[in-house]
Structure formats: C-alpha cells, structure tokens
Design a protein that fits this description.
By secondary structure, the chain is of the alpha/beta class. The chain has helices at about 20-35, 50-60, 75-85, 95-105, 110-125, 140-155, 170-185, 200-210, 230-240, 250-265, 285-290, 320-330, 335-350, 355-370, 395-400, 425-440; strands at about 5, 40-45, 65-70, 90-95, 130-135, 155-165, 190-195, 215, 280, 310, 380-385, 405-410, 420-425, 445-450. The strands form 3 sheets. It has an 8-stranded parallel beta barrel with strand order 1-2-3-4-5-6-7-8, surrounded by 8 helices. Bound molecules: 3-hydroxy-3-carboxy-adipic acid (HCA) and copper (II) ion (CU). InterPro entries: AIPM/Hcit_synth_CS, Aldolase_TIM, Dimeric_a/b-barrel, LeuA/HCS_post-cat, PYR_CT, Tscrpt_reg_AsnC/Lrp_C.
C-alpha cells in the first residue's frame, strides 16, 4: 500500500524566509493526521530549542501517523531524537562523490562505516531507522547499493532515495528505482524528489510504479529552493491515477490555506488542486461547454476536493454564462437585452483589468434601464488612502475611526499611507462613503477594491 510522509515541518521549514511557531506546528501536525498521511517528519531536534520542543510535543499528541525526527549522522543528533520520544529517526549522510569530497572529506568505505555505526547507535536506543543517502541520484549506483545494503544490515528498515537536486527525469527515476528494488535487501523505499525542473511529482509517481513504497510531500510544495511534491497534488494523483482512497481529499484546500496564512508563502492562482483558478472557466467556448456538461472541461468533479466550479465573466465570456450569472442574482433579461449586455461587457473588458459582479449588474442596469438592487447585503471594501505630504497620517486615521462604515484601519507602507476595511450595505452607500472620504481634509487620493469573497480566517 502506498504511503505518504509529509515533511512540511522539516523540509517545508527549510523554505527561504519561512518559520513556524511551535503551536502552528502542532496544528499542522493535527491537520496532516486528519488527512491521513502515514508519517509526519516533525523536524530535526538539533536545529534549535524550539524545533526540539515542537518535535517532542508532536510526538506526544497521540496521532495515528508515525512521527519521525530527522538527524544528521551524529550521536548527539540521534540522542536528541530519542529524547523527543519519537519512534523513528532519519539518519542522513551524503553518498555522492562531490558531497563526500567537498563537504565530508571522507572516502566511500569510511562513509559506509560511519553511517553504519550511527544506525547501530540509533537501534541501540530502540529507534527505528530510515537511512537517507543524501544526493542519492548523483551517487555511483554500485556504491549506492553497497551503502544502502550495509545500512539495512545495520538496522535501517527504510531507505530514502533522495533526488536532492531534482535532476532526474521520470524515465530515469523509474529505471533507477526498479534497479534499486531488485538489488536492495528487504526494506521500504521512500522517494524524496526535489522540484528543480518541475518534475518532482512526475518523478515520484514514476518511482512508485517502479516499486517504491512512499512519497515525501510538503503542504504547498514548500522546501529548499523549489521544494518537493505538494501534498494535495500527490493525494489527488494517487486517488485519480492509482485508486488510492485512504486520504481525506476534502481537507486539503483548507490545510493549504492555513499554511499559506501562517507562512506568508503564497501559492500561484494556477496551482493544481488548491490554486484559486484550478476550477475556474473563462472563455465562451469553455464556459458554454461546462454549463452544458462539466465533463467537457473537467476531468473530475471539484466537489471531491470540497471545491466549487467558477465561471469567470469577462470579454471572453459568451451569453450563456452571462445569463447564468445574472440569474444567480435573480435578474432575468430578454434575449435582445442579453446580447446588448454581452456587447457592453466586451467593451468594458477592453478598457478594464477586472470585471466585478457589481460591474456586470451595473452594465445590465444601463442596458435594461431597470434598477437592479441586488447588492443590498453586506458589501465589504478595502479603501487605500494617500495622505497629503504635509498632513500627519495619524490625524486622518483618527477621523476615519469615527466613521461608522470603517471596521479596521491600518497605516501601511508603499504608495498609499492608509488602508481601511469598510462595511456598507450597498454600492450607493459605498459611493457616498468614498465621496465623504475624498472631501476629508488631508486625503489626497483613494483607491477602492470591493471584496468579492472573504476566505475563512482560521483552519477548518
Ligand atoms: C537536505 C536533506 C534532504 C533529505 C531527504 C530525506 C535531501 O539536503 O536538506 O531525508 O529523505 O533533499 O536530500 O532533504
Ligand atoms: Cu530535501
């Protein structure tokens, strides 16, 4: 049965400019466990006192997943892993010529003895051991087989085939893993594939097909440089391509958002599975097809991931999608009116970057000559305000705080000085509010963004 080891807390925290707090790590671990990953690599306890604390606390949560500590092949590192109360330690030590010579200053035979000695030490402490030959993909294959088999004899029951620089292609990964499987003593094989050429997940899947047991992932594909396979993409691929049903698909997006929020590491809109655009359709040809039968442009129902299809309306969109969006707002129009609205949308789209729903409704109002009061519900907006250079920003902030429409005010860096989160009941209230703001002493310029969708602030 295929396994996933998630390393968001170890490899993921190696992402440039990312650090998690201990509590955030505990929350990530719980959420990973909820999704059902088989192993959680909780960190290398030797890195810092807080990493040590996080690994220790995660090990005591009583999660279903096996908790793994990472460690260099040092006695003190392995002892620290033991102190954390984990059941398994990773002993990692490089095997490629360049690493042995440049970093370790060790010959091959010396390296084997060193690795085995540390694995035996971990076994004496009662720990299960995964041995990671770092930079395995650039290691002489015969040496790799030798060092891994000696590691297994010394007590390792897992070998992580690490493509540390992400240099392999899927067909090479397949061949390499197949040969390893044939040549290694009984053990489980993990695949640790870096994404430097964008091939990490493809390589991992190829390795699985060749007989490996486990894929390493991180949430949002974080990690050193370009990271490793994204957890959500991996779970989806295993589900769709290999019929693996043991992971909870519906919580992946929320975990991704949670990690985005606490890490400040934002995913691209076009990222598969969790990206904002992953289930959005735009051109007339596509939206028309999807509205007739989603299977025309969707390989699976986004609902399996707890996500919804979105139809984006702009100058590329045809009548069918526009009529659907209007009818979502309870607006019915004649075929002639619809045609005219679509024409207006095309004109609007040539002049503007984004068409908001409020713009569509306004265009429909203009074309039909009927008042369409469909935004009576709470309307939220973010208003950016530039202050005259001779005015003290704090003075404008004080005035803003007195306005009932203003929920929050922030002094910010950049082109604007203030950002205000504003709550009004409709578009015309928003207009009035902005007029009032513009006439306020000290306000030079405003820029208003209507909030289309507010995402959950916290976890599930
Ligand atoms: C690193 C180590 C590692 C280890 C992988 C593993 C790699 O270079 O930081 O233990 O499976 O990529 O080789 O992340
Ligand atoms: Cu790595």
């Amino acid at each position: 049965m295929v396994e996933i080891l998630d390393s968001t807390l170890r490899e993921g925290e190696q992402t440039p400019y990312v650090n998690f707090l201990v509590d955030e790590k505990l929350e990530i671990a719980r959420k990973l466990d909820h999704i059902g990953v088989d192993m959680i690599e909780a960190g290398d306890p030797s890195v810092s006192p807080k990493v040590f604390q996080a690994v220790k606390e995660i090990a005591s949560l009583g999660l279903k997943a096996e908790i793994v500590a990472h460690s260099l092949a040092t006695r003190s590192g392995i002892a620290k892993a033991k102190e954390c109360g984990v059941g398994r330690v990773v002993v990692f030590y490089p095997t490629s010529k360049i690493h042995l010579e440049a970093k370790m200053n060790k010959g091959e035979d010396e390296a084997i003895e060193y690795v085995c000695e540390h694995i035996r030490y971990a076994r004496e402490l009662g720990l299960k051991v995964r041995y990671t030959p770092e930079d395995a993909s650039r290691t002489d294959f015969e040496f790799l087989v030798r060092v891994c088999n000696r590691a297994i004899e010394a007590g390792a029951d897992r070998i992580s085939f690490a493509d540390t620089l992400g240099i392999l292609q899927p067909h090479e990964m397949y061949e390499r893993v197949k040969a390893l499987r044939e040549r290694l003593l009984p053990c489980k094989i993990d695949l640790h594939c870096h994404n430097d050429y964008g091939l990490a997940l493809a390589n991992a899947l190829a390795g699985l097909r060749a007989g490996a047991d486990c894929i390493h992932t991180t949430v949002n594909g974080m990690g050193e440089r370009t990271g490793i396979p994204d957890l959500s993409e991996t779970v989806l691929a295993l589900h769709q391509f290999m019929g693996v049903n043991k992971y909870e698909l519906r919580h992946l997006t929320e975990l991704s958002s949670y990690v985005e929020r606490i890490s400040g590491f934002f995913i691209a809109p076009n990222k598969p599975v969790t990206g904002m655009n992953a289930f959005s359709h735009k051109s007339g040809v596509h939206t028309n097809g999807v509205l007739k039968d989603p299977r025309t442009y969707e390989n699976f129902d986004p609902a399996i991931l707890g996500r919804e299809r979105r139809i984006v309306i702009d100058k590329y969109t045809g009548k069918r999608a526009v009529a659907m969006r209007l009818s979502e707002y309870g607006v019915e129009v004649s075929p002639e009116e619809l045609e005219a609205i679509v024409e207006e949308i095309k004109r609007f789209g040539d002049e503007h970057k984004i068409l908001h729903d409020a713009d569509i409704v306004e265009l429909a109002e203009r074309v039909t000559g009927r008042m369409i009061d469909v935004f009576p519900r709470d309307l939220n907006a973010i208003v950016m305000i530039a202050v005259e250079s001779h005015v003290y920003t704090g003075a404008v902030v004080r005035r803003l705080k007195n306005l009932k429409q203003v929920a929050n005010v922030y002094e910010i860096t950049g082109e604007y000085d203030i950002s205000a989160y504003v709550k009004v009941s409709n578009v015309s209230d928003l207009n009035n509010f902005i007029e009032e703001l513009r006439s306020m002493p000290g306000v030079k310029l405003t820029d208003t963004r209507i909030v289309l969708k507010k995402h959950a602030e916290n976890g599930w």
